[in-house]
Amino acid sequence: MALMVLKFGGTSVADSQRIRHICSLIARLADGALRDALSILDTCAGVTGQIDEDVVRRMAGVTDRSYLFRMSDALAARDAASALAELAALRQQSVDVKRLTEELIAHYRSLMLAALPGVELVDLGENGREIPHTPYAIGRAEDELRRAAGADWLLVLLGTNDLLQDGAVTAAEAAGRMRRFLLRTAALPELSRTRTLLIAPPPLVPGAWVPPGRLTEESSRLAPAYARLASDLGASFLDCGALPLAFDGVHFTAEAHAALAEKLRLFLGL
Questions:
Q1: Which residue, among 107, 97, 95, 102, has the nearest Cα to 69 in the 3D structure?
Q2: Measured between alpha carbons, how far is 201 from 242 in angstroms, rounded to an integer?
Q3: Using alpha carbons only, what angle is made at residue 251 by residues 250 and 257, rounded to the nearest 5 degrees?
Q4: What does the radius of gyration of the chain's CA atoms come to, in whole angstroms?
Q5: Are 264 and 109 in contact (CB under 8 A)?
Q6: So what CATH class is 2-12+116-268?
Q7: What is the pLDDT along the chain (270 residues), one digit of tens a residue?
Q8: Is the CB of residue 229 less than 8 Å from the CB of residue 179?
Q9: For the chain, which residues make up each domain, given as ranges?
């Protein structure tokens, strides 16, 4: 799910932006594992002293990003033959399918937010991210947010993975984690003027990852729990509502990304 900040009308130094993008890419490819990130960086340094995104992708087995647009265009057109042909071509290039899937999910999220005009986005989303609730996870999130000092909005769309990855977590417990996390972010001096938008994720639906029963029921309870929490903390609240989800019952479809982008546009008055 997503954790991100928005800046309106802001600009960044090109070199700082480039370095941040490279570091973010390495972190995503390494799934947050320091040893794997260092291994990717060491491999890149072994072939060139000028490391850029193309080098990182090539050394990690992920080529230029144009394939993401070709695949998303084919899916949007419901052209299964073209999408499968693109996948086959990537497999011939030894592209890792797991990484491809993760990048495609991130690509759809970026497309959704690119539809918001006049906004600079700092995307801190990670696949599989839970609400930060351990000392390490909270500290890491705070470090990320400090680098987004002066943001206008902090958008928090988390909670589904807490229900998925720990079968014992309830919506009430997820809301408790969220309360503790938002109280910590509110105490950051770098975000003293930043407004918080707590977004309730769409309820899960039965699918490959979601059997009928507890998960669907608990996920439907997140929105009212988050609405109460936002009211208590003086934060803004947005409910995704029911959205079309993928075959697994968890991830957004292209239509879901577009629907959420429109909700955000209307909420932010863009």
A1: 107
A2: 9
A3: 135
A4: 19
A5: no
A6: alpha beta
A7: 566 555 555 444 455 666 766 777 777 666 556 666 777 777 777 777 777 777 776 666 554 567 788 888 888 888 889 989 988 888 887 777 777 777 777 777 677 666 666 666 666 666 678 899 988 889 888 988 888 788 889 999 999 989 987 668 999 999 999 999 999 999 999 999 999 999 999 999 999 889 888 899 999 999 999 999 999 999 999 999 999 988 889 888 878 888 888 898 889 887
A8: yes
A9: 2-12+116-268
How many other β-carbons are positioned within 10 Å of the β-carbon of residue 199?
A: 24
**Token pair of 89 as six digits:** 């071509």
Residue from 255, 169, 180 nearest 219 by CA: 169
Token pair for residue 119? 């906004």
The backbone region for 174, taken as left when phi is positive above 0, alpha when psi lies in -120 to 50, beta otherwise, is alpha
Overall residue count recorded for the chain in this entry: 270
